Structure formats: structure tokens, C-alpha cells
From TrEMBL:
Protein name: Uncharacterized protein
Transmembrane segments: 56-76, 146-166, 178-199, 299-322, 334-354
Keywords: Membrane, Transmembrane, Transmembrane helix
Annotated region (Disordered), positions in chain: 628-664
Sequence ranges of Polar residues compositional bias: 640-664
Origin superkingdom: Eukaryota
Amino acid sequence: MASDNQSQPGTALGSVVTNGIQDISAFLPILGTDQCETHCCQGIDRGFWYVAATPLSIFGSLGIIKAGLVTLIISIDIPSFRGPRLLHNAGFSPPGLLRQLTYVLDDDDSIYVAEQNVRSMLRQHRVIEVIPNLYSWPWVRWNLKMFAFTMILSALGISPYVYIIIRDINPRPFSSTWLYPVLRVCGSALAAAMIQLIIQFRLMTIVHRRLTFHAVNHIFKQEHRAPPTWWNPALRSEDCLSKLKADIDGFQQTSLNHSYLEKPGGLGGVDERLVGVGPFKRYPRDDSNPESERNIQPIVICTVAFQLGLVLGMAASVWGYIGCFKIVQSSTSATGPLVWLILELFLSVLRLWIWAFNPATDDPPPPIVISSGDLKPDAPRQDYVAHDIGWRLEDVTVDMHALVIDISSGVHGSSPQWPMFEYLTQHLAVPEDQVQHIRGFNPQVIRDALRSLSKNIAIPRGSPIVIYISHHSDRPTDSEWIGNVEQGLSYATFFELVRRISGTKGENVAVILDTNFPAPGTKAEHESEPYVLLTACSSREIPNVDVSGGSFTLELLTALKPAAVEKLCYEELSYEEVVRRAAEHLKVKGQTPRCMGIFKKRQIFNGILARKRLRSAESDSTSSLISATFARPTGDEQNSRSSTHTTLHINGNANGTLRTANGH
């Protein structure tokens, strides 16, 4: 009797705890909602583990539903339903990459943020070729992994309900027990996966049409034709191209009876295939290829299918979410709810650990690959080089600026070579108006150019700045001067101007000297200087030169070419490591390059090579979803039918080709 009385307090306490868990179980999933919503929209930016771990626990699963609802609304943008603006007016702030799908301005005609980012990359490019390829294996493989791991990890979300269903409410049928956890898990996993696919396809559609708009706009300028009155780069490219297609279709129908008519609104030279109804090639590579005749319509169909899948996933998740709490609250023992709570908390901690761990192996393939090369009708693809841009559509070369000073290049009597200028503008695709190239020696011009870098308001603070000097002379030079004492520029003045640049524009400045080593009195080699200094040799050596330029420059650029960079890891792309590799090849010439400065371990050129992975573009046609080729004018363009091009590969859409030429 006494033992029964002693056990009652413990039983009562357990009953209170159990009842408390049952009462607040519907509110516990609010924990982690914000994190789940944010990470569910970051998969294609930070890796598929962010997506796969999200549905693990019911705690925070409401975040998946919220992210799915925002994704669904923002992905629908038609005249009768402007999803992005409706979300803005309702006070929603889309997380992650969904911001790329929002409007820049609070206006129904505003362009997308993604379009604005693409415009910043296009502003210096004149010629464009767009080649969609929906069957990019790296892209397909990543999405398959994302979906598979999401389903596998989500299956663990059923485990907290096993004890309650088997031990407490086992006689009940499947439809009132196991069905609810299965619906919650499968619905959440499906919704999380569909969110990634919708973001990808919408981004690719927007980017593809902005590229197409840019191509058509170039045709108008190239052929000196006035575009239609409604043609406006500040408006969404989707709307402009739809109107353009309607005008062309109307003209084609009319021209069947009136063959003498010209295309309206300056449309002469604008092929209807430019607006997504077929491929366009000014210089066809292989017109016999039937794959090139496909258009971008499949991506629209796929997007609608993914939206339906998202709705199905959210509905199943909500249904299962409600049913799971019925299971917990119908438990007949004190142990069942405790086991449920402990396992759900464990899964929540496991999810946090996976998010925090974030291995690099789950990173998605880059959506954009910029390539550069000499594009001709019969140009082989291996003549291209390429580097990657992430899913945020940010190109660091847009902010990169350089001052290239070629006082002398190559041995005496040889034709001038400009290897550093060509590398920056062609291989790294830095806009040419951001690379000032001084040929020959004029101290005042050099001083003015250095001062302009520090005062240029167009250069944001923190932008990468490269200052390069190449000077090789047959006559002895003073180590305190660039050039000779009578007509040269003192190193003291030069580095004082460099310090001013670093003071106004930030410490992301690299100085590359392929000339005599600065004298100790200039303090240029001090390790505490707020810039990185790369020199061709030590103080007791003389830099070597051959017909193609300085030996140090050539070895440095060789170490940065695609064949070399592809084999390197992230840490090996620092200034210090690149100079060390160049020094190994220059030992036989008695030349020891040096790298100095407190930021010498920083990634070279602001991490352009590490972030973009410079590589050969020979296989880009199979690894990219969309390839687009840009060309900028070169100094010899007026005297030559070929010009230097920059190629942009963007993952998205279906097979097809678009190219405009530079008036050839």
C-alpha cells in the first residue's frame, strides 16, 4: 500500500510531462522555421546538403512550406499575376537566391535583379552567341544527387513515430498512423527539391532572354536601324521579346500577300529565331546537327511541371504535418511522447550539424562560364579559355581595374608583345575600358594614370587593382629609378602613389614589376606594406627577356593558364604560391622572383581564378547549359575581319544557337 502511494508522485509527474508535450507539440515545429526557409532556398548556391537536411525533423518544417509558397508566387509573373510585386507589397522578403527573381524597382515594368546583374556583365560586350543545352551532365548529375540525398535523409523523419505507432496505437489502420509521417516526409522532400528546380529554371529563362535581348539590341545598333518605340533595355526582356515576336509574326503573315513590305520598326536583319522560336547562327558551325534546331520551349513546360510538383509536395506536407500531431496526442503511454520529443530534437541537432559542416563536395556546377578566344566561322573550340561565375551572377572582373605599363617588351629589334594586357582582357575578360595600357615611357603620363586610379569614383573600395610594369633595357639602370636617372620615374614616387591608391581604394592592390629590383631606400619590399608586390628578381639579379617578353611575366602567366590552373587547389592560387612555382622554372636563368606584402597569401587577382576555375573551354559545349559568346572591339578590329571574343556559358534552357556578328 505504501509503495503504491510512493509511486503516485512519479506517475503524476510523468503524466504531467506527457500531457504538456502533447499540448505544446503543435507549437514546437516553429523552432527552426526561419533557418529551414533560408537554407531551403540556398541549395544551388551553397550545396545540396542544405536542401537534403531540411526535411529531417518536423521542427522547422513549416519553413519549407513557407519557402515553397514564396517560390511558387515569385515564379509566376504574367500580366494578370505579377508574383514578385505581390510578394513585395505583402511584406515578404524572399530568402537566398529567390532575391534574384525580385524586381529592381517597385514597378510592374521593372527588370529582375538577375537581369540587372547580367546587364553589368554585358555592358562592355558587343557581339553575342547563345547556345542552350538542356542536357548538361554536370547539371543533371547534381540535381539527381540533390533529389536522392534529400529523399534518403528525409526518411529518417519517420523514426520518431515508430515507438508510438507500434507500442501505443498499433491496432489502427495504415491510413490513420503511418500515412501521416510518410506524407510529411515525402511532401517536404518533394517541395524542397522542386524549389531548387524552379529557381534554376526561372533564373535560366530570365538570363537566356536577357542575353537574347542583348543580341537583338546589338543588331539594331549594328545595322543602324531605329528599334521599335517599345524596345527599352530598362524593361524586362521577356516582355520586349514577346512584343518583338508578335510584330515579326504579324509581318510574316502580311508579307505572304505583300512581298515588297519591309519589316516594321527596324526589324530588318532581326531573325524570328532570336526570340526563342529557333536557333540563330551568323556563322553556323554545324547546320546539319538536328539538336541545334530545338528551341527553349521545353524549359517553360518543365517549370510548370515543377510548380505543380511543388503544390503537390506542400499539400502532402501540410496534411502529414497535421496528422503527425494527432499521432503524438493519441499516445496512451507516458513514454511515447518523450521518445518522440527526444528523437525529433536529435534530428534537429543532426540537421544543424550537417548545415554547419557543409562539405565542398556538394557544391553545384557553375551556371556561367566565360570564355575568351578568336572566334571565326571555322574556329575550333579548343582555342577558347573559360572561367566560372557562381549562381549569384556576380562577375568579379566587372570591378577589376588594371594599369599595364609596357615601357619595353621583348628583346631589342623584335616586334612588341603585350602578354599581360592580352591575358587580362582576353583570358580574364576584364572590360578593356578598365585596363589602361601605356606603351612606351612617359613619367608624367604614368604619374597621372596612378593618380587617376586613386581618384576614380567608378572604382569601388575593395575592388581588385593590378599595376604592372615591364621594362627591359640594354643599358644599365639605377635600382632607385624606373628607367634612367635623367628621364625616369623614381621608385620612391611610384610607391608613394601606390600607397595612396591602397589608402583610397582598399588593400586589394597587386604590383607586378618585371624590371630591376627596387632599391632598399624605397621601402617597397617591406612586409607590412598594404599591397602585394611581385618582383621579377632579387636585388642582385637582372631580369631576363626574350622575343615574347620578360621571362618572369611569361612564367607567371604560364602558371595561370588553363592547363596549369585546372590542376591546382584553392590554396595553391595565392600570390605567394604562384610566384614560387614561377621561381622553380627560372632557376636555370639565375633569376629568383619574390613575393612580398602582408597580403601575399591572398588569392591572386581577388580570387578570380580560384572562384571561377579558369580552364580550357574545349568541352564547354557539353558541360554548359547555355553558352553565349561576347566580343569586344580590339585595336586591330577595323583592319581585320576577326575580333577578340569573350564567351559566356550559362546553365539553362534547351538546345539551340543564337549568334550575331560584328558587321561581317
